[in-house]
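Replying to the earlier thread about multi-chain prediction with a worked example.

Input:
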Amino acid sequence: MTQVLATYNIKGGVGKTSAAVNLAYLAARENNNVLLWDLDPQGASTFLFRVKPKVKGGGRKLVRGKSEVEALIKGTDHERLDLLPADFSYRHMDLALDSTKNPTRRLAKLLKPLAGDYDYVFLDCPPSISLVSESVFEAADALLVPLVPATLSSRTYDQLRRVVAENGDGPSLLAFFSMFDRRKRLHREVMDELWEGNGSVLQAGIPAAADVERMGVRRDAVAAFAPRSRAAKAYEELWREVRESL
Amino acid sequence: MNGAQYLLPDGLRLGAAREALAAQTGLLEDGSRSRVERVFYDTFDGRLHAAGLALVQTDGRLSLMGIDAYGERASAPFDRAPERLLARDLPAGRLRDQLAPLLDVRALTPIARTRSQLLGLRMLNGDDKTVVRLVCESCTAQGPGRGLTKLHSRVHVLPVRGYEAAAERLKEQLEKKVGLVRAPAPLHDEAVAIAGGIPGGLPPTLDLPLRPTQRADAAAVQVLQRLLSTIEVNLPGTLGDVDTEFLHDLRVAVRRTRALQRELRGVFAPEPLARFRAGFRWLQEITGPTRDLDVYLLDFDRFREVLPGSLGGDLDPLAEVLTDERKRAQRKMARALCSDRAATLLADWSAYLEELVQSPVDDRPDARTPIGELAGDRIQKVYRQMLKRGRAVEQASPAEALHDLRKQGKELRYLLEFFAVLYPDDVVRPMVKRLKSLQDVLGSFQDSEVQAGMLLAHREAVGARENGAAALMAMGLLVDRLERDQLAARAEFGKCFASFAASRQRELVEATFG
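Result:
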C-alpha cells in the first residue's frame, strides 16, 4: 500500500524541502518506488532534481483533474525516484482547489491512480495554513514536521496539532528537530523541553550543516553527493525512525 | 516506456564500446560497473512473456521488469532462487500484487540463468540532468548441461520517464550514426532458447492448419499428435507436482484424445482402436482422484466464503484431510504414470499415429473421407443427439440425464474446437459461446452434486480429527448450500438450453455442417 508522507510546517525556511528530497532519495535507495510531488510554487525540490518547474496545463488543470497525473511525472537522476514538478501557477492552488467539488479531498483523489505504482509518495508542501494544507492533511498518512528549536516552535507545533486534530481522522504527526545546533544553549533547552513534554517529536533530527546548504549548489540529495557526511547520516537516522513509526 | 536493445559488434569489449558510443553521441559513463548473476522465471505457458514481462532473481532481490529493456516495475527482497514459486510464496507487497493475477494457480520455474558484466552510461541535458540511461552488457547463458554460451553483447536503452523524446533521438543516433542494429530478440529470449526452452512457452494446442479436403485420417493424426505432445510436455510437471495446471492440461489432452477416438472411430482399425481406447481410459482414471482433490482444494476459499461469519475457519480439519488425501493420490498417480504400462501406451500410440495414413484402409471406412465432410457429419449428429437428450430433460429427470448431456456437450465442444478452422468463424464462434453457457450451467449443477458427495464421503475422517465436530457442522451447512446451488442451476438450465436449441441455431447447424 502506498504511504503518503508530507513535509509540512506553517513556517518557511525550516528544512521541509531538504527533508523531502533526502528522505525520498533514501526510500528509493532501499528499492522502493517513490514519487515526490513538489507542491511549493517556489519549486525548490524541482530545482534540486534539475527538472524544469513546469506542469503542462498548469496547476489549475491538474487540480481539476483535466490533466493525466501520470503524464506529468518526470524521472529523476535516481532510479525508482520520480518527481511531479512544481509550477509557478501552484501559487493559486487554493483558488483552483476552491473551485472543485470536494476541495479538501482533491489531492487524495489525484493520487489514487498512482497507488499501484509507488510505495511512497512525498508531498513537499508550501508554508501556510490554507486549503492546500487541508487537502494535504486529507491525503497524507503522516505529516513530517521540521521544527527549528526556537522559542516559538513549541507554540507553532501546538497550533498545528490543534488544526490536524480538528480534521478528526487526520494524518499522524511526526515532528523532528531541524537546523539545530547543540552548541547553542537555547536550542538544547527547547529540544529537551519538547522531547520531555511531547512524545511525538522524533529522536532523530537534522543538525544545521554546510552539506545541507550545499544541496543548492550540487543540486542533489546530500545522501547522494556526500553519503558519509554527518548530514547524510542524520537523514538516514531520521528515515529509519520515520519508517518505523509508520 | 519503449526500451530497446542493440547488438554490439562481435568481439567489442565493453570499455571500447563505451568509448565508441561516447565519441559519437556524447554519452557519459555513470561509474556503475557490476557483475550480476540472474535467474529468469516464467510459468510453463509463458504468462509473463505474453504480458511483456520478465521476472528476475538477482542480487538478493526478485524484480519484475519489462522484457524489452530493464525498466523495473516492482521488486522485493528475495535471496533464494527456488525451483518453484507460487504467488503465495512471493513476499507480500507490490510485486505479489502485480504478479498474482497473472499467475493465478500457475507456478513460476527457472527458465534461464545468466552471468553478465554491466556498464552504466547516461545522457545528460543542458541542466546536467539524466534524460536517458544505457546499460552495456556482456552476457553468458547456461545451457541444459550447465555449459555456458556467450550471447551477443548488447546495449539496453532505458528511457527516463518524462524524457522519452530524448531516448528516441538517441536510438536514432545509435542506428544512423553509430550503425548499431536492434537485437532481433530480447536477451531474455536468447537465454531461454540456450537453456533449451521456448521463449513465451508452447504455442496453443489446437492451432492447426487443416484443410476441408484433407483425408480424415491425416487430419486426425495431425490433431492427435499435437494432443500427444501436450500430454508428454505436461508429464514432467505433473510428476514433479509443480502446479495443478500440468495435470489439468494433461487430462484435457487425454479427454480430447478419447473424444476424437470415439467420434472419428471410422478412421482407425477396430482392434488397435479398442486397445488404445482402453489405454487412454485408464490414463483418465488414474489421474482423476488427484485432479478432483485439486479442484476441491482450489475451491476451498469459496467454501469458506459461503459460510456465515467466522465459520469458514471451522473447515480447517476438512482442508487437512483433503491435503493428506491428495498427497497419497499424487504418489499413487505418479507411480502409475511412471509405469511401463503408461510409457508403452504413449510410445505405441505415437508409433501407431505415425503409420496410420500409410496403413491399409480396408477396415478403416472413413480414412479417405474428406475431413470437412466427416467432421461436419459428426458435429451435426452430436448436436442432434444433444437436442434430443436436452428436450427429454424434465423437472423429475434424474441428475444423470443432465450429466450425460454435459458429457456430450464436451464432445461437441472438442469437435468444434478441433475443426473450427474448417468452418466459418461467424458460425462456430457464437455456437461455441452458446454451448459454453449451457455447459457452465450443467457444470455448476454437477459440481454442486460432486462437492456435496465429497463432503458426505469425508464425514468420518473429518469427525475423527481435532475440532472435527465444528467442522462437521460447517460441512452440513455447506451441503445445504450446495443443494440450493444445484436447484438454482437446474432452474437456469431451461433458458440456456432454449438458446442452444433455438430454430435459428438448428438451421445454422444444418446449413453449415450438413
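Residues 3-245 of chain A form a domain with the Rossmann fold fold (CATH 3.40.50.300).

Feel free to reuse this layout for your own posts.
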